[in-house]
Amino acid sequence: MIARSTRAALAFACSLAGCFNPDVQEGQFRCSPDDTRCPSGFACDPCTNLCRSPEHVCQGGSVDLSTSLDGATRDLARADSSTVIDLAMRDQSTANDMATAMDDMPMTLPDLTMAPDLAIAPDLSIAPDLVILADLTQFPDMVCADNGAACNGKSCGTAVNNCGNTVSCGSCPLGQVCNGNQCVQCNVDGDCTTGTPWCNNHQCVQCNNDNQCKDGGWGDTCSNGVCLCTVNLKDCANPRAPNCVAAFMNVGVCECSNQNLICPNGQTCINGGCQ
Q: pTM for the whole thing?
């Protein structure tokens, strides 16, 4: 009878004042890893330590912290109107200001400062070996071109070209020497052979005077570098050319025969032949 009267009284009170049925918003209640209790339909978000819809756990999104349990909008900046029930507290006796809930969610920004290795490194500056070198300023072959005229009319030796450089004009063949950029037979007597042992005006000749002819047994007279003899006289005493062969009237040259003018050194003319 008493229980029935109690239930009747509770029903009467609910009809007068209305039973407590709060409109709980997402993020209004705090929780913790040690106490994960949340109102029905919510789960404890370990990323924010707030009671949120299961599909929003650790997924970000905004949470309206300004709505109280009775659905009215309140200014969370005012301490006397921002107290909500903290279900994370086991004794349910201490209210928590939801305006401080964001303190548990510090935003950690990435380090946006420039890393040292992204700064301009000293080794990216102009290296010394990239500086314009003095010897590359102007190439010698770009200053002057040799026109090839320095050795015109010259057969040997060296000459200075149009650029002021000394160039070679070649060398003389065997038996000749260079004199004044020209190849000649001799510069001195030692450049000549035994058959024409004397150097006269860069030409090797048989004689320069009559005595050279007589002393050599090549005749009795020197004419233009050639020893002459008189026919039928013993002017040709050299065994390499013992015969005076007439060239003009009674004047001739000492020879072995018409076919063998002078026998080589070391040979003797016998019966018109060199042996």
A: 0.41
